[in-house]
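>> received
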Amino acid sequence: MIRQTTLIAASTALLLGTAAFAQTAPTTAPAQPAVAPQGTAPAATPAAAPTTTIAQALRTLPNHATLAKLVTAAKLDATLGGPGPFTVFAPNDEAFGRLPPGALDTLMKPAAVASLTTILKYHVVAGALTADQLKAQITAGGGKATLTTLAGQPLIASLGENGNVMLTDVNGGKAYVDTADVRETNGVVHLTNGMSVPKIG
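>> returned
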């Protein structure tokens, strides 16, 4: 038990102490649902309504298998499959690949569920916020919007280069939304190129 606690503490320290999460802004504007070109009529058939919950969608999103596995390990499937609505900032597999060696394995151990849950809940905000709504909050806040996550800690949203929403965590790490507005039945998912790390402990 002492050894597991020491491993969890060491992984948490590595997670918080690494600069591997500071991301550079994407070189293109975030991908969004297709819009008819100016001067043309919108498509005759509207986009199909979402049929899956966020928890179900995470399992099928390309390049997000690690996040789906972590959500299951943290027992958050029921939460993210519930009525919500939620906004999820979903780090891609490359973001988790930048963790220090062994940190991911340690966080997936049963003894680390509380830390893993806090990390994952730091990527979730109550309410369904589209990219346009986030940008409106950023503008109304003079360039920044403070989002309260399900982990109970703030995540700061601002606009990065190319109009991408940039997330700054409590440790100063940055992640950028590279695909916005993946709509699900219980909220919206924004795909990010980095992790946001909360204070743990």
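>> The first strand starts at residue 86 and ends at 91.
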